[in-house]
Amino acid sequence: MRKLENLPRHELIGLKTEVVESENTMEEGIRGRVVDERKNVLKVECKGEEKTVRKKGRKFKFELPSEEQCKIDGETIEGRPEDRIKKKMRKW
């Protein structure tokens, strides 16, 4: 079950997200649904088009199906999704 405290170890595809901080200010405000995830990027569908956003150097706001929201540092979710499950996560 997806919970705020274990979000970095779960599947992000399907969640609503928004880029709240970015090294590239043009990316700030991108919001939509995560449609794919790679080691270093998230693909976000917004307004009918797909945008690729690097994880490093960004902060994301995710909304869980329960409508809870949390902000997460891109470095926390960096890496292949299948490898994140095995990682030990620090409290954040």
Task: Give structural notes.
With 92 residues, this protein is mainly beta. The protein is built from one helix and six strands, in the order ββββββα. The protein has a single domain, classed as Roll (SH3 type barrels). 4% of the residues lie in helices and 40% in strands. The longest helix has 4 residues, at 81-84.
Helices and strands, with pairings:
Layout: E1 16-22, E2 31-37, E3 41-46, E4 49-54, E5 58-63, E6 69-73, H1 81-84
Antiparallel strand pairs: 1-2, 1-5, 2-3, 3-4, 5-6
Q: Order of strands side by side in the largest beta sheet?
A: 4-3-2-1-5-6
Termini, distance in Å? 19 Å
Q: What fold name goes in the CATH topology slot?
A: SH3 type barrels
What is the level-2 CATH architecture name?
Roll
At a glance:
Helices cover 4% and strands 40% of the residues. By secondary structure, it is mostly beta strands. The chain has a single domain (4-79), classed as Ribonuclease P/MRP, subunit p29 (SH3 type barrels, Roll), CATH 2.30.30.
Q: Characteristics of this structure?
A:
4% helix; single chain; 40% strand; globular; 1 helix; 6 strands; SH3 type barrels; mainly beta; six-stranded antiparallel β-sheet; 92 residues
